[in-house]
Specification:
heterodimer; A: about 350 residues; 17 helices; about 70% helix; flat; B: about 325 residues; mainly alpha; 2 domains; two-stranded antiparallel sheet; 15 helices
């Protein structure tokens, strides 16, 4: 049982009852006389200013980038222009949208990220639940493998991964000259480059970017869910899967939204895998192409070239994250909520 | 074909419907079903890739054309690449640089994120807004944005670290190094401390940006401490300072281990890490050699994590839970 909570209102009433005979001014004076109030006020102000300062450090690059994105070349060269552009222009945005195919890249990336994030969330949920709630042989070894996939730098597997998805086959270790079932049946291995398949396959098997972290988080979350819930469902005659989908999933929605947000955002800004699996960038536009090339109409050959290119890249960066920031604003309250309930301790 | 069908039917019947097996066994079976995707993925895709990666780091390849078809022949060269990498000073130097960066950043990130999490956990004006702002880096400081930031910093350094406010050097120095130096020289403290603080101040943008997830984890840990413990402390007359060191810190110490390990992994596998950059540039010309290098790198990562986890776990306080 919780102890009865003292809300603000009850506190006020207590004070009023106690000091009911004093006037408002006298009460204030009495309050100020105790040094504790002063210290508290100073600490509060200090804390607020500090938080404001750190927020500024986080947000300043955005402000600077937004300001820079509206500048003309003349403004960039002009040393007196700082933050507020003199000649307002949209030429950088226009060039990026038209020449770097922004909307095409947006659509492709949105599709890919949504697909991957949905699959990854569900799969992380399943695997995390299996690891948290069932005692079977090899449970701990599997958990060790999950941590291993988290620790290994993906550069280490880059070459092997590229080889594998260029000539995709199951089981086959190519360096040993092994042949897998796909080559056995169809005569040659499948070519999965320039398609969604490599990322979808990795997501389905819980092996994609940072999936180890998601599985770990889900496992910790499910460990905090009391066993009695499932036991009562079993007694009522539900199977494990029915229990999972009807009882466990509805109660883990905030955590799932957190995982979804992570995987969506990290897939959205990923360039390692997209660069690896799409070897003809001109055929299929994704987010990395938006910022990598400077549009031809914005190229110039003078002293400020590198600075101007930088501004163009920063603008591209802004355009890449705007959809993410909008999504974040909708989901951010679930972020803390999900983690709070995760019981990550221990 | 019929035989196989009846056999698989029997298998699934055993899995779901066999009433003679005990509940525990049936539960264990459905446990396997839950983790089945992962097991399949490991066997079908991950293990071959892993083995390939190891063998590639020990082979040389040659592309030839036989019957108008491109054919790659692999020749085993043993540990040659590994030896070569160890004798290559630029590589060992980049490894050392990566480790040095780690030593600088990890304590700073942990202390900073713990501090911010403690503050964000208190009741204060605009807490919801601050929380929203502080977790922005979680979703946008990886991958693409990381490399954009990195190129930004480089250009800022090329311009002498002067921020013209045009957005060109959006992430350049926020506080001048000279100010910090003059502040510390008046205080007569050791030179190492000054360099450390200066480096931290220079990296303040990175540190704030890389501590989003850690803040979330710390905040979760703080939320799980029972308020009744704090209540008891207040009644016994403990100050806020004492409460932090005697209650909050020990209770949060498991999170420090989790965050320490996470920060090391994150910092090591980031594309902006000097060693990762070096491996990346080598990869373009000699992929096999770069793979060998990254295996060496991986061993160092594992070793570092083991050492740090070993040290940290001896300081951890675990609350006994009933």
């Amino acid at each position: 049982m919780d102890s009865p909570k003292i809300t603000k209102e009850t506190k006020k009433r207590l004070v009023v009852d106690y000091e009911g005979k004093l006037s408002a001014k006298e009460r204030l004076l009495k309050k100020l006389k105790t040094s504790n109030t002063w210290i508290k006020a100073v600490v509060n102000v200090f804390r607020f200013v500090l938080m404001l300062g750190v927020s500024f450090v986080i947000l300043y690059p955005f402000f600077a980038r937004i300001a820079g994105s509206f500048m003309t070349r003349a403004d960039v060269a002009d040393p007196t222009v700082s933050l507020v552009p003199k000649h307002f222009t949209l030429e950088i945005y226009k060039a990026l949208i038209v020449e770097n195919h922004y909307f095409e890249a947006l659509w492709h990336t949105a599709l890919l990220s949504l697909l991957c994030a949905l699959i990854q969330t569900l799969v992380a949920c399943l695997i995390g639940y299996g690891l948290a709630k069932f005692k079977f042989k090899g449970n701990k070894i599997l958990m060790g493998i999950v941590v291993f996939t988290m620790v290994i730098p993906h550069r280490t597997l880059k070459l092997a991964m590229a080889q594998h998805f260029a000539k995709f086959d199951l089981f086959a270790v190519q360096a040993w000259g092994m042949k897998g079932p796909i080559e056995g049946i169809f005569g040659e291995p499948a070519v999965l480059f320039n398609t969604f398949w490599p990322l979808i396959l990795l997501s389905v098997f819980g092996l994609a970017f940072k999936n180890g972290l998601y599985i770990y988080m889900m496992r910790q979350f499910f460990k905090g869910v009391p066993d009695e819930l499932e036991e009562s469902a079993y007694v009522d005659g539900a199977g494990t899967f029915r229990t999972f989908f009807q009882i466990i999933i509805p109660l883990s929605v905030p955590m799932m939204i957190t995982i979804f947000l992570f995987s969506f955002a990290w897939q959205w800004t990923d360039e390692f895998y997209t660069k690896l699996f799409w070897n003809n960038p001109e055929d299929f536009y994704l987010m990395p192409q938006v910022y990598q090339n400077i549009p031809d109409s914005l190229r110039l050959n003078d002293g400020i070239e590198s600075m101007y290119n930088n501004i163009v890249q920063n603008t591209a960066g802004l355009m890449i994250i705007v959809p993410l920031v909008i999504l974040y604003l909708f989901c951010q309250r679930y972020l803390v909520q999900g983690i709070e309930r995760s019981g990550l301790v221990g | 074909m019929d035989k196989i069908l009846t056999k698989t039917k029997g298998f699934f019947k055993n899995l779901f419907g066999n009433r003679r097996v005990s509940l525990d066994k049936r539960k264990a079976r459905s446990g396997y079903l839950f983790v089945l995707p992962f097991i399949l993925g490991i066997i079908l895709i991950y293990l071959p890739i892993l083995l390939d990666s190891i063998s590639f780091s020990m082979t040389d390849y040659q592309n030839t054309v036989v019957d108008q078809k491109p054919v790659t022949t692999y020749t085993f060269v043993g540990l040659q690449y590994y030896k070569e990498a160890f004798e290559y000073p630029a590589f060992t130097e980049s490894l050392l640089k990566g480790l040095q960066q780690l030593v600088f950043q990890v304590p700073a990130i942990i202390i900073f994120s713990l501090f911010i999490a403690v503050v964000l956990n208190q009741d204060m004006l605009g807490r919801a807004a601050f929380r929203a702002i502080f977790f922005v880096p979680v979703i946008i400081s990886t991958g693409l944005m990381d490399s954009i930031n990195a190129s930004d910093i480089m250009s800022a350094a090329a311009q002498g670290g002067i921020d013209d406010g045009s957005g060109g050097a959006a992430t350049s120095q926020i506080i001048s190094v000279l100010d910090v130096k003059s502040l510390f020289s008046g205080m007569k403290v050791g030179g190492e401390l000054v360099t450390y603080v200066v480096q931290i101040v220079n990296d303040v943008y990175d540190i704030i940006n890389y501590s989003g997830v850690q803040m979330l984890i710390f905040l979760a840990g703080l939320q799980s401490i029972s308020p009744s413990i704090y209540e008891a402390c207040t009644i016994d007359g403990a100050t806020a300072w004492e409460t932090f060191w005697k209650i909050t810190f020990p209770m949060i110490s498991p999170m420090i281990l989790v965050n320490g390990v996470y920060t090391i992994i994150d910092s090591f596998t980031r594309t902006t890490n000097p060693a990762m950059k070096f491996i990346q540039t080598t990869y373009d010309s000699r992929p096999m050699y770069a793979t060998a290098m990254s295996w060496i790198y991986f061993l160092i990562v594992i070793l570092t994590i083991a050492i740090v986890a070993g040290i940290l776990s001896s300081f951890i306080f675990y609350q006994r839970r009933d």
